[in-house]
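Handout, section 3.2

Students often ask what a structure token actually looks like in practice. Rather than define it abstractly, here is a full record for High-potential iron-sulfur protein. The first block is the sequence as you would receive it.
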Amino acid sequence: MRTHRRTFMLRSIGAAALAITGRAVWAAPAQLQESDPAAQALGYKTDATHVDRSKYPHYSDNQRCSNCQFFQGKPADASALCALFGPKQVNGAGWCNAYQART
């Protein structure tokens, strides 16, 4: 009987969270798109090799989101949250104009 009660409670909590937030609590954060207004404002590119060097002359080949101080994941992570883009994940191989090397 305990198993059924525990299952019921876990499902009820999940359903309540879904009703409150409008999304499943176990869902992964959304991926930042280059078309997002915040991404456009900072010149975000999902692939740093596509950065327009004439527009961003300070860009360097070794700059990637994964080695930026704002990247919330580990350097080896394919994507992670960024302190600048709120609840959206950035591509570890990406880049934006706010890049600051990790120290």
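Discussion prompt for tutorial groups: Residues 31-103 form a domain with the High-Potential Iron-Sulfur Protein; Chain A fold (CATH 4.10.490.10). How would you have guessed this from the sequence alone?
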